[in-house]
Structure prediction request, 438 residues.
Amino acid sequence: MIPSRETERLRKLRPVQPGEEGYVQSCVERLDGWVRRLNAERLGDLVAKRRRETSKRDVGGPPGITAPPTLHQGGLDWLDLSVYGETSERYNDVCLKASLVRDQVRRDKDKWGLFPIGTRFGRIKGQGEGTGYSHCPYVFEYKSIKFKFGSPRSDGKPLVFVDIPGESFLVLGERSVLLIVGDVLKLMGITIEKIRVRRVDACIDMPGVSVEQFWQEMTQKHFTTRSKKVRPFLNNHMELTGFTVQGECCSMTVYDKLADIREKQKEHQLSYLQEHRWNGEQPAEATRVEFRIRPGSTVFADIRDLFDLLEGLGSIFAWATGAWFRMVKVHDRRHTERAKVVPLWRDVVASFQALAGKFDCFVHRRFPGMCDATKLTAVALGVLAKAFALTHVDPAGEPLETLIASVMTRQREPDKESIALVRADLMQRYEIAEVGTA
Prediction:
């Protein structure tokens, strides 16, 4: 999580709060500042800064770097948003027209049908998407951006779910994409209160670097991570095409992007990458390093909306490429922070740093995992046993409400022996095993 002092600083700098007019515009302005810092950052200044940082603490490379890191281009690769707000009569009209067009598409046995929202001409899907509370009967697609919505809701649930693929970011740019999202929501008749981020993917493409270089470091155990799940990818010819490191709040995937394009038969992606990321050339090999972040987890509790995400991208990348996973030559597993960072990973860290603009201090708080019912029951009985023993209350044959009332009205000195006796009696009476012995 971002430190509380840093959070307060960001709150003071925020020009618009969620729910106020111009919320999306404020996010766009934040993104403009991000892009300006990125363009103004010179390679020499970046390398000098990295040397100063690594001389104090090993974040992205060992002290005494003699060669500057190689910077690779990247960007946001996926963004899932949940839009909360209020609706007008225009929204009801949009839902009615979407229902009519969707039904016509079904009768024609087509998959999509032409559908305009204001001046934005897109297409409507013949079937809804999602399950449970996130099920939406209408799916509107404009410039590959999906707007999933349904009838007006008053239960506090999101009105619209927005899925933005990497192709939209790659071709249009982050700023244009956010402006399109805000414009479509306005044309739908929605007054935005807040936009929450459900998932964000960010990647860098490394032309001239093979997946085998990364996998070689993995097989030699030149890495440290907070995840225990590492799974390689193999094609039909049993050749390595990538691997993934999975976690609850964060996951990383390293894979051959060219092989992925050939396998999925998406040749248009290759032309997009050549035009917008590879300077018009097609490399012989290209590896993509991709991080998937779920801000809804407790690790990123300070990322409450889209504005928080844009402010904290640098901190998130710093945590993901440093504390959560990094490639290092570990000599002592008890002190992995002292290990020398692999040069290949130093390039990855520097590229994500250039992508986010700036690495801020990011403090990660460890949260305990969810306990099972046996452990929770044992803890509850232990608390009750201590309370009964401290107040010399005999729990035999008395309702729980009466026992709690007796405890709250009595104040006695603690008696460790009584605590042990009462706890043992409760454990035996309710046939509860000690934690760790079951």
Confidence is low (pLDDT under 50) at residues 1-7, 9-13, 54-66, 358-370. Residues 289 and 297 are 22 Å apart (CA to CA). The two ends are 35 Å apart (CA to CA).
